[in-house]
Structure to design on (346 residues):
């Protein structure tokens, strides 16, 4: 029996055409769309504005979930929730919800596994399995939106920096963001999204040319080619000079601030020399440096830097005129780093 189409892969116009072919009026498409994306229903049975017959037809025609939660961990401070989802083909992905004062931030995945091979990342250590579809990316956000709705909260920010390299699955990721940004649907503002890339230069240039309002973050982690290549294999294909040129083009084209991410690894990239090298590299750019104490993984020997060294690193950057913050570590007790839960999935 062939697989049914996945509802969250559908464009609105496709849904409308399908309903018209079933003899339904056009406005039914908007009712159904808003039921799932605004009212956050889980199945057609929960849509009370359409007939029972149409609900049954939709249930027979489409699949409405590809994500089966198989494990859920909550941090001891209740501020971080990590969910492991099993996909229909048996692959596993993760998504994380982080509570801040007035923000409910989701970190969602774009791939099962990752081909980039960054040595300190649990997902990179897994290798690449497959890209997620647009609908599988969207459904991660809807899952947590439904969960938050139960406590009268809503998703405020989404970062595509979970499992996978978003720009390696460019079309599906941007389609998913457009879907979640749709004013007639989920309606999360474009500036509430952040895409994090390890530095796929052609995709950065493509993204810049589209002049979107979505935030862009670059996983930098080293300010010289030799060290960066030892941490991020993609450096060998797109060296720092090419990456930084693409970043400058992005800023010049979009007039938007860029974020550089720097995972601080004790004795590797957390010294004053490293900070000065970074300051020199990004001097004059409209940017912000996000300093992230390393989230340890089983297959990487590197250790998290000390708080004192993180503060000193930040101080050196600030003295050199580089805006920066030390990101609050979340979910360490539940291995909330990308891929840490999926890597144990059998």
């Amino acid at each position: 029996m062939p697989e049914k189409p996945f509802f969250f892969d559908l464009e609105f116009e496709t849904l409308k055409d399908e309903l018209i072919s079933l003899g339904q009026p056009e406005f039914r498409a908007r009712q159904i769309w808003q039921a799932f994306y605004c009212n956050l229903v889980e199945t057609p049975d929960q849509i009370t504005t359409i007939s029972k017959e149409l609900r049954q037809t939709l249930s027979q025609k489409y699949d409405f979930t590809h994500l089966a939660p198989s494990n859920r961990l909550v941090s001891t401070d209740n501020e971080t929730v990590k969910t492991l989802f099993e996909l229909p083909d048996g692959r596993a992905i993760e998504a994380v919800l982080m509570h801040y004062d007035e923000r409910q931030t989701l970190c969602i995945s774009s791939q099962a596994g990752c081909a980039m091979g960054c040595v300190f990342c649990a997902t990179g250590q897994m290798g690449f399995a497959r890209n997620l579809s647009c609908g599988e990316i969207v459904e991660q956000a809807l899952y947590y939106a439904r969960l938050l709705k139960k406590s009268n909260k809503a998703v405020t920010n989404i970062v595509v920096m979970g499992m996978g390299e978003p720009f390696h699955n460019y079309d599906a990721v941007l389609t998913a963001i457009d879907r979640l940004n749709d004013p007639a649907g989920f309606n999360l503002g474009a500036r509430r999204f952040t895409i994090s890339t390890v530095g796929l230069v052609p995709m950065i240039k493509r993204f810049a040319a589209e002049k979107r309002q979505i935030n862009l973050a670059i996983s930098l982690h080293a300010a010289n080619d030799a060290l960066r290549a030892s941490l991020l294999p993609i450096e060998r294909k797109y060296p720092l000079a090419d990456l930084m040129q693409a970043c400058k083009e992005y800023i010049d084209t979009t007039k938007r601030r860029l974020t550089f991410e720097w995972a601080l690894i004790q004795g590797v990239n957390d010294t004053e020399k490293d900070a000065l090298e970074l300051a020199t590299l990004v001097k004059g750019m409209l940017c912000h440096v996000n300093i992230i104490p390393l989230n340890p993984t089983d297959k990487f020997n590197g250790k998290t830097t000390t708080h004192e060294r993180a503060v000193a690193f930040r101080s050196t950057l600030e003295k050199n005129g580089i805006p920066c913050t030390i990101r609050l570590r979340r979910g360490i007790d539940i291995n909330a780093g990308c891929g840490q839960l999926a890597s144990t999935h059998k």
